[in-house]
Amino acid sequence: MNNYEIMFIVKATMESGDVKKTAEGYKKLVSDLKGKVAEYKELGEKKFAYPIKKEMNGYYFVMQVEADKDCIGEFDRKIRLDENVLRHLIIRKERE
């Protein structure tokens, strides 16, 4: 199992409840794929420096995850297909 940091941005034009539902869905997805969410942060809505997919604002979320590469691969595949997620970034952290 490796440690990862996952950051993703959800469209701000969605209803507030739908934004949280989308983010919670990805948190649950990690657990369903046999991963462990060590930390979960909602950073709130922020304005972009430039438009991303014609959006000017987005809700930021960050998760610290402990998972294997198959879990992260499936997470990456599913988040790419979601039209409500504007951007995402997965970083493998070095062991301490």
Looking at this protein, list some descriptive labels.
single chain; 31% helix; 96 residues; 4 strands; four-stranded antiparallel sheet; Alpha-Beta Plaits; alpha+beta
Question: What do you see in this structure?
Answer:
The chain has 96 residues and is of the alpha+beta class. It has a single domain, classed as Ribosomal protein S6/Translation elongation factor EF1B (Alpha-Beta Plaits, 2-Layer Sandwich). 31% of the residues lie in helices and 51% in strands. A 4-stranded antiparallel β-sheet has the order 2-3-1-4, with helices on one face. A hairpin with a 2-residue loop joins strand 2 (36-52) and strand 3. The longest helix has 17 residues, at 16-32. The protein starts with a strand and ends with a strand.
Side-by-side strand order of the widest sheet: 2-3-1-4
Q: What is the count of DSSP helices, taking H or I runs of 4+ residues?
A: 2
Shape: globular
The total beta strand count reads 4
